[in-house]
Write a structure and sequence with these properties.
With 56 residues, the protein is mainly alpha-helical. 30% of the residues lie in helices and 7% in strands.
């Protein structure tokens, strides 16, 4: 549901701000496993001190 809401919001925002029709937009969400993320000099599966959850 969260991803569906995000996609619909993106369509609305892009159309409203850039005047691009949703018929001309393609959105793909491709989720990566935590070991494929890189931030703060480490990968996502190495991060143990985050103050938020990684799973949606």
């Amino acid at each position: 549901d969260t991803q569906k809401q995000l996609i619909k919001s993106l369509f609305c925002e892009i159309e409203g701000q850039l005047a691009i029709s949703p018929n001309d937009i393609e959105i793909t969400i491709h989720e990566q496993a935590p070991y494929q993320w890189g931030f703060r000099g480490m990968t996502g599966d190495e991060a143990k001190d985050l103050k938020y959850k990684l799973n949606v």
